[in-house]
Design a protein that fits this description.
alpha+beta, elongated, 14 helices, 11-stranded mixed sheet, 13 strands
Amino acid sequence: MKFRALILANLFRKKIRLILTIGSFAIALVLFTFLAVVKSAFNRGIEIAGADRLVVVDRVGLMQLMPVSYAEKIAAIPGVKYVTHDHWFGGVYQDPKNFFPQFVIDVENHRKVYPEFIVPDEQWNNFVKDRQGAIAGANLAKRFGWKVGDRIPLKTTLYGAATWEFNLDGIYHTEKPDGDQGQFWLQWKYFDENVPAPVKSTAGWYILKLDSPDNAVRVAKAIDEKFSNSSDETKTETESAFAAGFAKQFGNIEFLILSIGSVVFFTLLLVTGNTMAISVRERTGELAVLKAIGLKDRGVLFLVLAESMLIAFFGGLLGLLLAWAAIPVISAALTGLLPPLLLSKPMLFTGLVFAIFVGAVGGLIPGIGAMRLRVVNALRRV
């Protein structure tokens, strides 16, 4: 602490340079944090996927429909506990920009396969009885100001140009606060009654719950073998693998984030190193005097590193505060286009550690140079 006054004096020696360097850290930390939350959003589906669930799709692709009769055949395979099926609806609410996932669900088995989606029993029973009923996630209902009893019109883009109207019978929540609460569900039977003939009696994909996660490989192989010679062959994989494959349709997110993150790291490193090198060069005479009156080499290194890490700390803290304020706004603006962007405390801590680490590394080389200064040679430069 005896160096505190000296460190602060050096920090504020060039105020414009200090502000610009802190600003560089702040902007970099906003970008770093945004990349982290985007990565987390895409991985969240993989992380919360049930280890005891499998997804069955047509081998040709997800958009290829399968007969709904597959459900009974899949349920008969040993190791399968429950089977349900979903369908993509693809409707538009008021404006094409109001995108959100809409699923046609099998009401008899959906809750058995997805126990983490919590709907009050009274609301669920009303939904089951109402052919035009619908259930919305809590976040989705909050987004549009919906409440139970509202009439929700959706203009379909896949099954003609008609507008389907639904009664909002319930709102679901999830066990975990970061669960997916942005879906909209409608009944398969009502859907099947009103779609064109080629779509009737079909399912988009099947989700099945296993007796044990240990049976996943065996059951997946049995399902694909069962339909191997049919007109609609299947591809069965774990829910986590399915979620990972779906995320890859947006591109190689991991590589993109790693590339941008590396650029951010090296840019900050250069900015910090250059700032501290200039600072040390400006204070060559002062450092020589300090060494002449007894300051050891380690003390000189400490002074330079402390200054560099303080700049990084305050710049990182400012950037994280900006990210904390901006990311909820960005998430709301991108609702439907990306999964919800959630900024967690571990991310904030990681960002601050990242900033301090960059500050330490950036100040290391100038600090070593200052530490190795020979007093006589340094005073000759003055």
